[in-house]
Amino acid sequence: MATQPIVDRFVPLEEYLSTVYEPDCEYDDGVVVERNLGEFEHAFLQTILAALFTNNMEAWGVYGLTEQHVQIKPRKYFVPDVSVLRMDAAADDILTHPPLIVIEILSPEDTLPRSAKKAAEYFQFGVEHIWVIDPRARAAYRGTELGLERVSSGELAVEGTPILVSTAELFAKLDRIREGKLKQ
User: Each residue of 142-154: b (16+ CB within 10 Å) or e?
Assistant: First the structure.
C-alpha cells in the first residue's frame, strides 16, 4: 500500500519511469509515493502466493507477478504485491490492462480505510478481483465497488475457474514457519 510522498517536488512522469527507486515506489500525478514495505509476514505471504500461482499456472490458466507496475490511469501507477494475469495476457514491462487479480498484503503501517480507497481505484480500472490480506489480524478482504468486504469463509476464489486460495492454509504456513516447524 502506498503511504506518503518521498520527494517534496513535482516529478515528471518520464523521470519517474526512468528512475530506479529502492524500494520501488508508486506514482500519483507528479507525486512519487513510497510503499510500506512488509516485514517478515508480508514478505512470506507474498512469496507463498506467488509460488501458489506459479505452481498452478497450467491448471488455473494464470500466472502471478510480484511488484509489477500497473498503470491504472495516464498519470497513476500502482505496484501491487501480487498481480495475477491470464495466460493470454500481454507480458508488458508496465501493465496497462487490468490483471485478473490484484493482491495487496498489509504492512504494519497500512490501514483498512487506505486499502479500501486503493481497492476502489483498482475496481474502477477494471480489476475483477481485489484481495487484501491482513497478516496481523489473520483476515482477508475482497475489494468491491463499495469498499472492502471481509471474507468470512476463509476462501478466496475466482468464480468459474479452479482458482481457490485458503487463507487458513496461508496463515497456518505462516504460523508454522514462525514457530520453525514448516515441514513438507
Answer: bbeeebbeebeee
DSSP secondary structure string, 3-61?
EEESSSS---HHHHHH---SS-EEEETTEEEEEPPP-HHHHHHHHHHHHHHHHTHHHHT
pLDDT score recorded for residue 142: 96
User: CA-based Rg of the chain, rounded to a whole angstrom?
Assistant: 16
Hunting for cell 512519487 — which residue is that? Answer: 32
| Of 125, 65, 64, residue with least CA distance to 96 | 125
139 alpha-carbon distance from chain centroid: 15
First to last CA, the chain: 32
Please name the amino acid found at residue 137: A
Higher-confidence residue of 160 and 4: namely 160
Query: Contact 141/131 with Cβ under 8 angstroms?
Result: yes
Q: Are 100 and 158 in contact (CB under 8 A)?
A: yes
pLDDT classification of 26: cutoffs 50, 70, 90: confident
Q: What is residue 118's predicted lDDT score, i.e. its pLDDT?
A: 92
Nearest to 26 by CA among 50, 47, 46, 6: 6
Instruction: Map out the domains of the chain with their CATH numbers.
Output: 36-178 (3.90.1570.10)
**Is residue 6 over pLDDT 60?**
no
Please state the pTM of the whole predicted model: 0.88
